Sequence to fold (126 residues):
Amino acid sequence: MKAVIQKLNVGLSYCDAETENDILVVFRLPADSHFHVGDVLDVDLFSLDSEQTMRNLTRNTSHRIIVKNDDIHDLRLLWPWHFQISISSAPTRACNTNMKAEPCGPANSLQPSLPVMADHERSAEI
Fold:
């Protein structure tokens, strides 16, 4: 999936890249790499926690990286108590290139498992 570099942290050797589906991919920069903000990358979001070949489409180079499962963040899921949350099901949106809000996997694959109360149940507690 294509992702555009949004932020580089050369001191910590990390890169943040965002897909067109608002998935933030964070990975450690390879030692022999030369990346710049705005570079377009081709990253495999289905190969998490294992080494993969990432292509820098802007510079026509290839690098070996590891994208960890905890380093995929869904920027659409913003909660009052979290700025972003890490989800392991973000790759289910990898095939959702038409920018729709629903995932292409199971219907509730991106929803957190929080208890839901009906309005009448909430008023009974008060």
